[in-house]
Amino acid sequence: MNGIGAVYLRELRILKRRAGRHLLGMTVSPLLYLIAFGAAMGGATRVDGHTYLEFLLPGLVAMTCMTQSYGAATEINIARFYLHVFEEFQSAPISSAAYVAGEVLAGMTRAAFGVAVILLLGAAFGVTLRVGPWFFLAVALDAWVFASLAVLLAMLVKSHASQSLLTAFVITPMAFLGGTFFPVEHLPEWAQVPLYLLPLTHAAHAIRADAFGHPPNPADFFVLSGAGVLVFGVALRSVGRARD
Amino acid sequence: MIVLENLRKDYGGKAALDGVSLAVRRGELFAYLGPNGAGKSTTIRILTGLTRLSGGRATVGGADIETAPLAAKRHCGVVMQHVNVDSDLTLWENLDIHGRLFGMSRADRTRRSEELLAYVGLDARADDLVGTLSGGMKRRLMIARALMHRPRVLFLDEPTVGLDAEIRRRIWGLIKTIQSEGTTVFLTTHYIEEAEFLADRVAFLDGGRLRALDTPQALIARVGAWALDHATEGGMTTEYFHDHEVAQRAALGCTDGLTLRRANLEDAFLSLTSKAVQA
C-alpha cells in the first residue's frame, strides 16, 4: 500500500507542477477536432438522429481518456531512460503490483482531467452530455485499460524511439478507427470485425450510449473489463522483466 | 553483512561477472576497485535488485536477494553512479517519496528529512527543485536519500566520479562519518587513491573476476614496499622491492630515467591484476 501511494504521489506532484502544460496539451487537439470536424465540416450532418457535434463529443471523451491515460507511458519512459528515477522504485521494497497500480492510478487521474476538459469544451460548443454512472464506469475502464497498456509498453521498450513507434502503430490508428469520429456500424461487416477487437470502440460505444440515454450494452463493459485484466496482468509481469 | 557466492552475470553469452565470491563484514568500509567494465556496477545493480543475476547466490543482511528480495532491499541504501534524483521534485519531496517507499511514518519522514538535509549541508535548499542544484549537491542529496530509511548497508557506486577535488574530499568525509555511525559501506570506485584513503578492505576486480582481496596495507605489502619506475621508449616499467637498500642499489645500476618511491595501492592493483602501465 505504501508503494502504491508513493508511486502515485510522485506522479501527482509532477502532474501538478506541469499542470499548465498538461492542460494546454489536453485542450489543443480536441479543440481542433471540435472546430474542424464538429462545427465546420459536420455542421449540417446528423448521425443516428443527433447532430455531428453531439455524436463526436462522447467519442472525443473516449479518445482523450485513452490518450491521456496512455500518456503515462511517456512519463515512465522519461523516468526510466532519462531521469533514471525508475531505479528508485526498482530498489525499493515494493512489489511490482504496487508499482503498476500506482502508475495506472496516475494515468487514470490524468484521464479524468482530460475528460473534464472535453466536457467543458463541449459545453462551450453548446453540447452538454448526460453523465450517468455507466458513463463514469466506461471512462474508468477505458482509462484503466490504456494506463495499464502504457505501463506494459513502457516496460517492454528499450528506448524512447521505440515508444514513439508503438504509439504511432497502436494508439494513433485506434484513435481514428475506434468509433470516435464515425459509427463503426456504417462500415462493411468485414471491416467492423477488427474494429470491434479494439477496446476504444467499446469505450466509445459505452460512453456514447449513456450520454444519449440508451441502455448500456453489457458486451462493451465485458470487453473493456477483460482487456483491463489481461493488460494489467501482463504489465505486472513486465515490471519484473524490466530488470536488465 | 553482504555475502556473494560464485556470483555470475552474463550479457549475451559474455560474462560481466565470472564467479565472484566474497563477504563484507558488518560496519566495514569495503572498496570494490577495478577499471571501467570490470563488473563493479553490475555487482551493485544485482545486490540492489536492479539487475537479475545469471548464477550463484547473494545475501544482504542475511536476506537472499532472489528468494527474499524485499527483505534484502530494506537493508540497502544505494547511490548510483549517475544522477537519478527527480529533477521535477524538490529536495524535500525526493526524500519524502523515498521514505514512503520504505514505509516510514509521516513524523519520521519529516524528522529524518530535516536531519539528513542538514547532515549533507542542503537544508537551506529543501524547497528548491532538484533541477536547480549543482552536480555535487545532487550527489549529496543522493547520499541523503539513500540514508533516509536508516539502511544497514550503503552501496555507493562511483560516488565522486566527475566531481572536483574539493567536493570529492567533502564526500569522502561524509562517507567516513556514515561508516563511523555503524553503517556498512560498499563502495565501488576506479579512483585508487579513494579506495586507499577510505577502505578497511579492498577487492580488486578485473574482467569480472576477483583478483585480490585484503586491507590496502596488506595488498601493497604483497608487491613490495618500494617501487622503481623505469621510463623507457616503449612506455614505463616498474620493479618492486621489499628492502629499501636493495631498491637503491638497483636504482644506482640503471641508466634510464627512473624514480624510486614508496609503493602504493595502484602498484598493488597493477601488479596483482597483471595490468601493464601504458605510457
Descriptive overview:
The complex is a heterodimer of chains A (244) and B (279). Chain A starts with a helix and ends with a helix. Chain A has one domain (2-241). Chain A has a two-stranded antiparallel sheet with strand order 1-2. Chain A has helices spanning 2-17, 19-41, 52-70, 72-82, 86-90, 96-124, 133-156, 160-177, 189-195, 199-211, 218-241; strands at 46-47, 50-51. Chain A is built from eleven helices and two strands. The model of chain A has no long low-confidence stretch (mean pLDDT 90). Chain A is globular. Chain A is mainly α and 244 residues long. Chain B is α/β, with parallel strands linked by helices. Chain B folds into two domains: 2-213, Rossmann fold; 225-262. In chain B, 36% of the residues lie in helices and 29% in strands. Chain B has helices at 40-47, 69-75, 91-101, 106-119, 135-147, 165-180, 192-198, 216-223, 244-252, 265-272; strands at residues 2-11, 14-24, 29-33, 55-60, 63-64, 76-79, 153-157, 184-189, 201-206, 209-214, 226-232, 235-241, 257-262. In chain B, the strands form three sheets. A six-stranded mixed β-sheet of chain B has the order 6-7-8-3-9-10, sandwiched between helices. In chain B, helix 8 packs across helix 10 (265-272).
Biggest sheet strand order of chain B reads 6-7-8-3-9-10
Overall 3D shape of chain A: globular
H-E string of chain B? EEEHEEHEHHHEHEHEEHEEHEH
Q: What is the H/E string of chain A?
A: HHEEHHHHHHHHH
On the 0-100 scale, what is the average pLDDT of chain A?
Answer: 90
Tell me the structural class of chain A: mainly alpha
User: Going by CATH, what is the homologous superfamily of the largest domain in chain B?
Assistant: P-loop containing nucleotide triphosphate hydrolases
Unreliable segments of 5+ consecutive residues of chain A: none
Supply Rg of chain A: 18 Å
Report the major sheet of chain A.
2 strands, antiparallel
Instruction: Please count the helical segments of chain A.
Output: 11
- The average pLDDT of chain B is 88
Number of strands of chain A: 2
The total domain count of chain B is 2
**Most extensive interface, residues per chain?**
A-B, 25 and 29 residues
Quaternary form: heterodimer
Q: How many individual helices of chain B?
A: 10
Q: What is the CA–CA distance across the termini of chain B?
A: 40 Å
Largest sheet of chain B: 6 strands, mixed
Question: What is the count of distinct domains of chain A?
Answer: 1
Q: Class of the largest domain in chain B, according to the CATH hierarchy?
A: Alpha Beta
